[in-house]
Amino acid sequence: MAALSRSRLTDWTTLVPLIAVVVMAACWGRDLPGPLIVVVAALLAGAVLAAVHHAEVVAHKVGEPLGSLVLAVAVTVIEVGLIVTLMISGGDKTQALARDTVFAAVMITCNGILGLSLLLGALRRRVAVFNPEGTGGALATVATLATLSLVVPTFTTSRPGPEFSPAQLAFAAVASLALYGLFVLVQTGRHRDYFLPVTQEGSILAEDADGDGHADPPSTRTALASLALLVVALVAVVGNAKIISPAIEAGVSAANLPQAFVGVVIALLVLLPETLAAARAARRDRVQISLNLALGSAMASIGLTIPAIALLSIWLDGPLLLGLGGTQLTLLALTAVTGVLTVVPGRATVLQGGVHLVLLAAFVFLAASP
């Protein structure tokens, strides 16, 4: 037992997050030279890989779909903290940061993670199969949350810009929390089977509900240790992403890209753990777990961020811009329609995966060249 404990303490998945947090604390608030930025970026990548490992350990212990929920909520809570920190310190240029980051998260999850998962699943089995009842309900919740929080502000008339009045913002926050809470209850309670992996014939893999029936579940002690290290790794990911964000902003400015593109880059970094976890699940023929991660992350990003920003707006000066522009509205509508057509059959080929990945590429390109 002592040898096992020492082995775990010296494992890279334990050491890298701890080192990354120490470096984050040492570098916080400082201007970093180029070589140190490279070191921080390397530790950021290592923390991402460690987060995926510990998330899989926790997911194996608690089973699906609760396992997918752990990583989605953990990443989103820290993402909210990052947005809040940047908004407090960024001044007027961050008035649209919450909108840009949340919209980027929705496009990355609903097109990037979802498309990659379908592509990998279809390449493995020619046809990727999943449960249309659960996935369809998740997609409907994402579409409703995105519309209420990001589309409606563009068309309301109480304020001159694409922003809510205080009463409208409060309603959007309460509605977001209520919808997200209802979805979690459905996903983990009475209709839990709608979110479990299925076979090619469409039957539920009840005997493999943890998502990986090839090994015994870890002990409670191991799972709790991985849960703690998961939180440490995610803090390291978001914290080090913030540390190198000035370098990212400088690069964006040097490339003559719009300020909103910074939010896209930060969202890509923060969502790396979920992307890698979803890809690994898809390669193991557990496409439903990948879709749980993708759509659950999109829901958590809206359902937790909007209420937090609404509360924060009491102390922030200046307007809070939430409404999307014309190009963004078009991409969101196309994503919703394409998602419905993909989900309804419960089966997808490489074509559907490719379509969603092209939509992600279009979003990134148009964010860089609006």
TrEMBL record:
<dbReference type="InterPro" id="IPR052946">
    <property type="entry name" value="Alkaline_pH_Ca-Antiporter"/>
</dbReference>
<protein>
    <submittedName>
        <fullName>Ca2+:H+ antiporter</fullName>
    </submittedName>
</protein>
<feature type="transmembrane region" description="Helical">
    <location>
        <begin position="12"/>
        <end position="29"/>
    </location>
</feature>
<feature type="domain" description="Sodium/calcium exchanger membrane region">
    <location>
        <begin position="36"/>
        <end position="188"/>
    </location>
</feature>
<dbReference type="GO" id="GO:0015386">
    <property type="term" value="F:potassium:proton antiporter activity"/>
</dbReference>
<dbReference type="GO" id="GO:0015385">
    <property type="term" value="F:sodium:proton antiporter activity"/>
</dbReference>
<feature type="transmembrane region" description="Helical">
    <location>
        <begin position="260"/>
        <end position="279"/>
    </location>
</feature>
<keyword id="KW-1133">Transmembrane helix</keyword>
<dbReference type="GO" id="GO:0005886">
    <property type="term" value="C:plasma membrane"/>
</dbReference>
<feature type="transmembrane region" description="Helical">
    <location>
        <begin position="350"/>
        <end position="368"/>
    </location>
</feature>
<keyword id="KW-0812">Transmembrane</keyword>
<dbReference type="Pfam" id="PF01699">
    <property type="entry name" value="Na_Ca_ex"/>
</dbReference>
<feature type="transmembrane region" description="Helical">
    <location>
        <begin position="227"/>
        <end position="248"/>
    </location>
</feature>
<feature type="transmembrane region" description="Helical">
    <location>
        <begin position="321"/>
        <end position="343"/>
    </location>
</feature>
<keyword id="KW-0472">Membrane</keyword>
<dbReference type="InterPro" id="IPR004837">
    <property type="entry name" value="NaCa_Exmemb"/>
</dbReference>
<feature type="domain" description="Sodium/calcium exchanger membrane region">
    <location>
        <begin position="226"/>
        <end position="366"/>
    </location>
</feature>
<feature type="transmembrane region" description="Helical">
    <location>
        <begin position="291"/>
        <end position="315"/>
    </location>
</feature>
<feature type="transmembrane region" description="Helical">
    <location>
        <begin position="167"/>
        <end position="186"/>
    </location>
</feature>
<feature type="transmembrane region" description="Helical">
    <location>
        <begin position="66"/>
        <end position="90"/>
    </location>
</feature>
<feature type="transmembrane region" description="Helical">
    <location>
        <begin position="135"/>
        <end position="155"/>
    </location>
</feature>
<feature type="transmembrane region" description="Helical">
    <location>
        <begin position="35"/>
        <end position="54"/>
    </location>
</feature>
<feature type="transmembrane region" description="Helical">
    <location>
        <begin position="102"/>
        <end position="123"/>
    </location>
</feature>
